[in-house]
Write a structure and sequence with these properties.
Elements (H helix, E strand, L loop, with lengths): L1 H6 L1 H24 L27 E7 L32 E6 L11 E3 L19 E6 L2 E4 L5 E5 L5 E5 L30 E8 L3 E6 L6 H8 L17 E6 L5 E6 L14 H9 L1 E9 L6 H14 L8 E6 L4 H16 L4 E3 L8 H21 L1
Parallel strand pairs: 1-3, 2-4, 9-11, 9-12, 12-13, 13-14
Antiparallel strand pairs: 1-8, 2-7, 5-6, 5-8, 10-11
InterPro entries: G_OBG (IPR031167), GTP-bd (IPR006073), GTP-bd_Obg/CgtA (IPR014100), GTP1_OBG_dom (IPR006169), GTP1_OBG_dom_sf (IPR036726), OBG_GTPase (IPR045086), P-loop_NTPase (IPR027417)
Pfam family, one: GTP1_OBG
Keywords: GTP-binding, Nucleotide-binding, Ribosome biogenesis
């Protein structure tokens, strides 16, 4: 063995590193009491960016789209050296471009869509019977699950699979050149058609699902801190209410290469279902999450009342939201008062039969069991969707 170390030191070091990694993985699994059949979340190895620029997800847009105008037909008479009366040779105009939307996995937000969208116009026809160039169709990528509704709320398109396309506005046809109007009576017409205008329509665009799991809580419950702890998302964190005004989405990666998206929903308050504190807009974000995690500030007096308020607001907005797979996060367990309130909160959660997880998002304590449960929610929910 000593001779092997002298001759091949790098081989022995690599063998030692592999053995150490296996022991470390086994110890981590045993400490967390996690079944080896469930994929483990991957650690965030790369240092998080300290940039203060945040990009919240945009899941709703009101847009006006217009197809391209068709090119005008050309008025031209052929004049050759040996035939000055060669007849009409004005070409047709090119067709205007369509405005189309295409579903793709590469997009997660509607932030890149402007409120006014117009396709390219077709080119005019020219002499010698040359057709004007047709305009290129404008193709805009949107996330899978994007719905297009008319202004009266009717669903016109639901792009629920990769590559699905919706033509929002068609371009106008090109006008005919004067050669089209030649007759036996009038062999040199000096008229042509204008290109047709493209369609002009208005839509509301919504993302049906913005994340697999949504974090719900009152303001300053620690939702943004928890999202920063489990992903590379960088939502703003500050010690005042309503720090988060738009949902932020983070991605949790697992060792089987699956990815689960978690959304930080802006904080709800009592009366949110009556649109108090922009409640309707925030509840709409919750409606687009497949699973829910209630985040409770355990350091406050009677923390179970926070859970009562959250569940009451969801029930008033849409009773079906209470039937979605859920769990409770008892956050801020690093504070002294949280230990005193923990048992009372646990008893309340046991009465409503929800999984319970004491955590400290600030100190990254108790995070791994939650990510294990998040993966279970993801697997069960996606399995139900595929069965449907």
């Amino acid at each position: 063995m000593n001779l092997l170390k002298l001759c091949f030191p790098s081989l022995c070091n690599a063998r030692h590193m592999v053995t150490f990694s296996i022991k470390q993985l086994c110890m981590r699994r045993s400490m967390c009491m996690i079944s080896p059949d469930v994929p483990m979340p991957l650690p965030i190895r790369k240092h998080k960016s300290q940039s203060t620029k945040v990009k919240p997800i945009v899941d709703f847009r009101s847009i006006k789209v217009k197809g391209g105008k068709g090119g005008d037909g050309c008025i031209s008479l052929r004049r050759l050296c040996k035939n000055p009366l060669g007849g009409p040779d004005g070409g047709d105009g090119g067709s205007g471009g369509h405005v189309t939307f295409k579903a793709t996995n590469n997009k997660t937000s509607l932030e890149h869509i402007s409120s006014t969208i117009k396709a390219e116009d077709g080119e005019k026809g020219i002499n010698r019977d040359c057709h004007g160039r047709n305009a290129e169709h404008l193709v805009i990528e949107v996330p899978i699950g994007t719905m297009f509704k008319s202004l009266n709320g009717q669903i016109l398109a639901d792009l629920n699979e990769e590559g699905a396309v919706f033509i929002a506005a068609r371009g106008g046809a090109g006008g005919k050149g004067n050669h089209y109007f030649a007759t036996d009576v009038n062999q040199a017409p000096e008229i042509a058609e204008y290109g047709a205008d493209g369609e002009e329509l208005s839509y509301t665009v919504e993302i049906r699902t913005i994340a697999h799991v949504g974090l719900i809580g009152l303001p300053n419950a620690g939702k943004s801190t928890f999202l920063r702890a489990i992903s590379r998302a960088r939502p703003k964190v500050a010690p005042y209410p309503f720090t988060t005004l738009q949902p932020h989405v983070g991605v949790v990666k697992y060792d089987d290469l699956h990815q689960v998206t978690v959304a930080d929903i802006p904080g709800l308050i009592a009366g949110a279902h009556r649109n108090r504190g922009l409640g309707i807009a925030f509840l709409r974000h919750i409606e687009r999450c497949l699973c829910l995690l209630y985040v409770v500030d355990t350091s406050l007096p009677e923390p179970w009342q926070q859970l009562e308020v959250l569940r009451y607001e969801l029930e008033q907005y849409d009773p079906h939201l209470l039937q979605r797979p859920s769990g409770v996060l008892a956050n801020k367990m690093d504070l002294p008062q949280s230990t005193l309130n923990l048992n009372e909160l646990r008893r309340y959660v046991d009465e409503i039969n929800l999984p319970f997880f004491p955590v400290s998002a600030m100190n990254n304590v108790g995070i791994l069991p939650i990510l294990h449960y998040v993966r279970q929610l993801y697997d069960s929910t996606t399995r139900e969707i595929s069965d449907e």
